[in-house]
Structure formats: C-alpha cells, structure tokens
Amino acid sequence: MPLLSGLQDAVVNEAPQVVYLHGFASSPQSSKAGYLAERLLACGVALRRPDFNAPDFSTLTMTRMLAQLEAEVSGLPPGPVTLVGSSLGGTLAVLAADRLPRVSNLVLLAPAVMFAKPGHHLLPPERMEAWKREGRMAFFHYGFGVERFLDVAFYEDSLQYEPMDAVVAQPTWIYQGLRDASVDYRTVEQFARQRPHVRLTALDDDHSLAESLPLIWEGVRAMVGRRR
C-alpha cells in the first residue's frame, strides 16, 4: 500500500497527532512550520503548533516549555503523538520523549542539544557574565522581527536539563545541515551515535534547512505513517 494512502486510511480510523515545536526566538508561524502544516493538512492531519513565547518571551524557560507541551499533549485525543522539533524545539522534543509515554516518534530539525550550556560558541564567557550581571539580555526574535529581552533565568533553568543523557527509545529521524552556524553537526552526530534507533541525515544546508524542506517533508510523512 502506498505510504500516502496508508496515512489517509489511518486518518479515518485514528487521526495521527503531530505537534510542531518551534525554535528559540521563533514562532509557530515560522516558514518550516507553515510548510509542514500545509502538506499535513492535505493528508487530513492537523499540525498542532503551541506558542512557547506565551505569555511572555522574557520569562521563557525550558521548564515552562515542558509544562506547556505536557498540557498540549494531555489535551489531544487518545493515541500516539509524533513530535517535530526545530532547533531548541528539538531539544524540547528529546526531553519530552523521556517524560511523556504518549510520544511515539520524533523528527528533529537541527536540534540544539547543547544550547545554553557553558562553552557554547553563541554564548561566550563575556556575554554570559553580562547576562548574569544585568539579569536580562536582548536577542533578535525572528518571530517578532525585533530584539526582545530574555531573563537570565532561562540560562539558569537550562542547566538542570541534559538532553545528551535523555533516554529516548522512540524511533527518531534527525536532519542536520553541514553549514549550520548555530548547531554543530559533530554534537548532533554524537547524540545520534549513542542511540542505535536514531537515523541522522546530513544535509548541505544551513540552520534554516530551507533548501531541504521537500526531503524533510518526506521524512515527516513517513514517520507519521509508522506511528508506534
């Protein structure tokens, strides 16, 4: 049976539940989210897209994101859930897979598995010291198109989470650009190498993965169709 036909048949019996987790300083209206939402809808699947900027970007923490995602998943109709996580949303997906039994599959797009950790190249020591000293720091927010302040509590809260140590037993497909200036391919490769059920696809693309969306869509469609 063709994959798309199988997915459409599954919709009749039990609609697949797919949740998109946007990245840091992004939004549910990102180009990747819109691209996937449009194609899933054509298959009869509604893509859920929680907004992790709410109620306020300045008070964002990983703990808050996990609570929001747990509430989102709890409110879905019965059945397995596929998480599609981009960048920091990929990290969130990994942490959620270790906590939420309903998560059946993961599709990770340039997952930021080392974000906000000491030594991260985007947060050099002098910038970290300024963040701690001032209590907040401005980041360009791609969802709003302007800079927005973020409390240092985001960084402090992130230290209690270690996605590299998360137990992720679900089938997982990762798409990672080799020209990504935000997420190091070697770190993602290390994450995948430790988990035999994870498939890593290296792409000649940057962090946006805009050039690879057709390939990513085929993976998302296949993963939704093979729900555990």
How would you describe the overall organization of this protein?
With 228 residues, this protein is an alpha/beta fold. It has a single domain (3-225), classed as 3-Layer(aba) Sandwich (Rossmann fold), CATH 3.40.50. The chain has eight helices and eight strands. The chain has helices at 3-13, 31-42, 62-74, 88-97, 125-134, 153-158, 185-193, 213-225; strands at residues 17-21, 47-48, 81-86, 103-109, 136-141, 146-151, 172-177, 198-203. A six-stranded parallel beta sheet has the order 2-1-3-4-7-8, with helices on both faces. Strand 3, helix 4 (88-97) and strand 4 form a beta-alpha-beta unit. Helix 1 packs across helix 8 (213-225) and helix 2 crosses helix 8 (213-225). The longest helix has 13 residues, at 62-74. The radius of gyration is 17 Å and the shape is globular. The model is unreliable at 1-13 (pLDDT under 50).
CATH superfamily: Alpha/Beta hydrolase fold, catalytic domain
CATH fold category name: Rossmann fold
Q: Residue ranges: pLDDT <50 for 5 or more in a row?
A: 1-13
Judged by helices, strands and strand pairing, the structural class is alpha/beta
Summarize the SSE layout with pairings.
Blueprint: H1 3-13, E1 17-21, H2 31-42, E2 47-48, H3 62-74, E3 81-86, H4 88-97, E4 103-109, H5 125-134, E5 136-141, E6 146-151, H6 153-158, E7 172-177, H7 185-193, E8 198-203, H8 213-225
Parallel strand pairs: 1-2, 1-3, 3-4, 4-7, 7-8
Antiparallel strand pairs: 5-6
Helix pairs in contact: 1-8, 2-8
